Amino acid sequence: MHQHTLSLFDTDVPNDPPEAKALEVHRRLCKEYDCPIRYFHVLDPLAELVSALLSHRTRNRDSGLAFRTLRERFPEWEQVRDAPVEQVQEAIAACTWPEQKAPRIQAVLREVGERSNGDLSLEFLRDWPVAKARAWLENLSGVGPKTSAAVISFSNLRGKALPVDSHHHRVAARLGLIPDSLPVGPSHRMLESQLPGDWDAQMVYDNHQIVMRHGKEICTWRDPKCRQCVLLDLCPHGQARLAGKRPAAHEGEQPAR
């Protein structure tokens, strides 16, 4: 990482349109974290949906263990759907709130079957436009824009959708790409609209990955490493913080798990 210095009196941030700023952020972070980022999931869309539900407020290591254990104990999704909820809860014990996630996953599997003529598969989404596929997914109980985008982008559908997690959201808010008060859910549409329309799925995926990584490693919830940040001259939060005018984290924000 680079070390950046900033005069405490130099707090001017370029007032570029958000689209231009988002593009410059992407360019710098791609250089920093070496794009393109190789896809790391090979799950089908239904498996990715369950994985995403398990990952909510859970570390990747723990949600990954919960998913693997679930699949080892119940190789077929019909078995997960029809098992006593206590057995599903036991299988996913490694994730947070398994007592809530077990019945939710079973309910989602029932909904998928009911809306797909009994077929527990989301392969039909492969032939749909992304907007239509995401709308279908978000009509499932407990599925919001982050989960629908994850299914489209992370699964072997390899579609063009931008997931926004708490790290991505924090970086975007501190940069002024979205208002501080905008919740994560509505931020998906705003942040996605700032990316060039001719980008392919890989470039959108890269954007999520590099902004998320920057939030984990540099723009952290507590004690962000502003002087090491390649985006400091674009960041009103970082400049104000180094000038002693702003605390280290947004008021009311909670650290991501």
From TrEMBL:
Its protein name is HhH-GPD domain-containing protein
Q: Would I find Iron among this entry's keywords?
A: yes
Coiled-coil segments on the chain, per record: none
Transmembrane parts of this sequence: none
Mind telling me which Pfam families this protein's record contains? Answer: HhH-GPD
Annotated SUPFAM superfamilies: DNA-glycosylase
Classify the source by domain of life.
Bacteria
Q: Which Gene3D superfamilies match?
A: Helix-hairpin-Helix base-excision DNA repair enzymes (C-terminal), Hypothetical protein, domain 2
Looking at the keywords, is Thylakoid present? no
| Record key words, sorted | Iron, Iron-sulfur, Metal-binding
Q: Which residues form the HhH-GPD domain?
A: 54-217
* Cofactor(s) in the UniProt record: [4Fe-4S] cluster
InterPro entries annotated for this entry? DNA_glycosylase, Endonuclease3_FeS-loop_motif, HhH-GPD_domain, HhH_base_excis_C
